[in-house]
C-alpha cells in the first residue's frame, strides 16, 4: 500500500512568488494535515482538511492557504513568498481528526 | 506557531542502554498524545500513542508514560540501538489539531 506522497521533493522560488505543494494521502484516509518544519525547529501546525473542508488552521498568515479535492488529495499554496518561508513542509493523513497520522517525506521549499 | 515543550534538545546514550526522552505539555484538556521519530531526510514516523485515560502503554522496545498530574510525557526506549538515532517529537491532540514539540535529538554512542 502506498504511503503519503508529496510533490515536488524540492522547490526553489524567489521572494514574492507563489508556491504550490501537493499531497496524496493514504488510500481511505479523509484527513490531511500540513506542517511547516523550519531548520532546527519543531513541526508547526498549518492546516487541517477533512472531507474536503478546512477544519482548523494554525497561527500562520492568510497567504498560507490550501484546499482538499474530492479524492482527498490536497494542495498547500503559499503566496508572496518570504525568505522565512524556507522550510520543509510535511503532509500527514489519517482517518479522522485525532488519530494516528502518517507522514509523507516532505517538500523542501527554498526561497531565495 | 504552537508547540509542546521539551526538556532537553539533545540526548546521548550508550548503545545497549535504555533511553528516556521527556516532554512537558501545557494543556490539561489534551486527551491524546503521540511520539514520533524523524530520521534525517525523512518525514516523522509514528512510534506509539497514549490516551489520557491511561498512564502507561508498551510497544516493542518502547514504553510511553503519561503523568497527568504534572503534565509530563516520556518515551522509554529499551536497549538502544544505532538505528534509534533520530529526532523524537512528542505531540498532543488539542483543539482538533496535533501540536508538536521542538524535538529531542538522540545520539547513540558506540
What does this structure look like?
The complex is a heterodimer of chains A (112) and B (110). Chain A is mainly beta and 112 residues long. Helix content of chain A is 0%, strand content 52%. Chain A is built from no helices and 11 strands. In chain A, strands 2, 4, 5, 6, 9, 10 and 11 form a 7-stranded mixed sheet that branches. In chain A, strands 1-3-8-7 form a 4-stranded antiparallel sheet, with no helix packed on it. The radius of gyration of chain A is 13 Å and the shape is globular. By secondary structure, chain B is an all-beta fold. In chain B, strands 2, 4, 5, 9, 10 and 11 form a 6-stranded mixed sheet that branches. In chain B, strand 9 and strand 10 (97-100) form a beta hairpin. The radius of gyration of chain B is 13 Å and the shape is globular. The model of chain B has no long low-confidence stretch (mean pLDDT 86). Classes of the chains: A mainly beta (112), B mainly beta (110). Chains A and B meet through strand 4, strand 5 and strand 10 of A and strand 4, strand 5, strand 9 and strand 10 of B.
Descriptors:
heterodimer; A: 112 residues; mainly beta; seven-stranded mixed sheet; four-stranded antiparallel sheet; 0% helix; 52% strand; globular; B: 110 residues; six-stranded mixed sheet; five-stranded antiparallel sheet; 11 strands
